[in-house]
Design a protein that fits this description.
The chain contains 17 helices and eight strands. By secondary structure, the protein is an alpha/beta fold. The protein has three domains: 2-192, 2-Layer Sandwich (Nucleotidyltransferase, domain 5), CATH 3.30.420.10; 196-290, DNA polymerase, domain 1, CATH 1.10.150; 303-382, HRDC domain (DNA polymerase, domain 1, Orthogonal Bundle). The longest helix has 20 residues, at 212-231.
């Protein structure tokens, strides 16, 4: 395979011309985000199975030919666990490349492992072990040495071959179209938007909070999200999650009370203390109907529902075994609990997960399907096949 490192606009034009008629392109990115809110795009690796190249966006100002290639809808773009890579495209150019194929999602559907890493997949399918020595590289520093570039190129050199193998297996099992919902979600811009008003849902330690505490958390988290976005700084540099959760729980009303919040620095209180108090007070004044509700809050089940959850979870494992995938790839216990509690907007109820298991579990809940023993083995009997 021809390998190239692209550092000039002319080299990029030539590369894109060589790749223009490819039916698919394997893609990966390298980035850093330790000191920023948005990931800093540092390197793009691309291959069509004959050419593998690393493109340096820190040295090339005009990336137009590359963008034309990435957004060509005649070409399938292949990623492994591509959400973070796609976030970069969305942030920089406001568009997402499609159609795409994600090998991690495909591997999960084929029973090769739930959220399997690229290196493990290369080893399983191609019997090759990848070098791991540069996983902590600072990709923003220049120059990159040969070993770093070799490590980066490995992420796409084998990706195309994996794509072709997985695609063939999906076709053989009649599952090629089952992943379309997952791929559509990856190419939906809403997947990568971070509206400040929804930031509270991602705060670690929010689970014990309820009622007006969640309203306070929502206000504080929205303010922090806006600050981080505008300054392009990590959220934790502004206030850590545990501090936000503690502020929401205790709801201080004066500066002296802010000083008792663990992790809230004196300098932060001096600069932002009055603002924090106002945010808390305004949130406390909201009418009850405007308080947010945490739909992921643990559901309290009665003993009958607990037993039903156990039953459904056992049936889920049976369905996973029958379809040669892991039960974890279908749903976790919390999702089964939510299903028993009446929730239907679940991953389990969309796409291939619904085809394999979701419909069956709904039939059990509706009394149209039931587990029984047949010659010592558990089977599911149903009046009607799931649609």
């Amino acid at each position: 395979m021809l390998e190239r490192h692209i550092q000039t606009e002319q080299q990029l034009i030539e590369l894109c011309q060589q790749l223009a008629d490819s039916p698919w392109l394997a893609l990966d990115t390298e980035f850093v985000r330790e000191k920023t809110y948005y990931p800093q795009f540092c390197l793009l690796q691309i291959s069509n199975g004959e050419i593998a190249a690393s493109v340096d966006p820190l040295q090339i100002q005009e990336l137009g030919p590359l963008l034309e290639l990435l957004y060509d809808e005649r070409i399938v773009k292949v990623f492994h666990a591509g959400r973070q890579d796609l976030e970069i495209f969305h942030n920089l150019w406001g568009r997402l490349p499609k159609p795409l194929f994600d090998t991690q999602l495909a591997a999960s559907l084929l029973g090769l492992g739930d959220q399997i890493g690229y290196g493990n997949l290369v080893e399983q399918l191609l019997n090759h072990t990848l070098e791991k020595g540069h996983s902590r590289t600072d990709w923003s520093r220049r120059p990159l040495d040969e070993a770093q570039l070799r490590y980066a190129l490995d992420d796409v050199i084998y990706l195309g071959e994996i794509y072709l193998k997985l695609k063939q297996q999906l076709q053989a099992q009649g599952r090629e179209g089952w992943l379309q919902d997952d791929f559509d979600q990856l190419t939906n811009p809403d997947t990568y938007s971070n509206p400040p008003q929804a930031a509270w849902k991602r705060i670690k330690g929010r689970q014990p909070l309820k009622g007006v505490q969640l309203a306070v958390l929502q206000a504080l988290a929205a303010w922090r999200e806006q600050e981080a976005q505008q300054a392009n700084r990590p959220k934790r540099w502004i206030l850590k999650d545990e501090v936000l959760a503690d502020l929401a729980r205790r709801q201080p009303g004066e500066l002296a009370q802010l000083e008792k919040i663990r992790g809230l620095e004196p300098g932060t209180i001096k600069r932002r203390g009055e603002l924090l108090l106002k945010l808390i007070a305004d949130a406390r004044a909201l009418p009850k109907e405007q308080w947010p509700r945490d739909k992921r809050r643990a559901i309290r089940l009665d003993p009958n529902q607990e037993a039903l959850t156990d039953l459904l979870h056992g049936c889920l494992r049976l369905l996973a075994e029958q379809n040669n995938i892991t039960a974890a790839a279908l749903a976790g216990r919390k999702e089964i609990e939510a299903l028993v509690g009446g929730e239907r907007e679940l991953e389990l109820m969309h796409g291939w997960r619904r085809v394999i298991a979701g419909n069956r579990l709904l039939q059990i809940l509706d009394g149209e399907c039931w587990p029984e023993l047949e010659q010592g083995r558990l089977i599911l009997s149903a009046r009607n096949q799931p649609g």
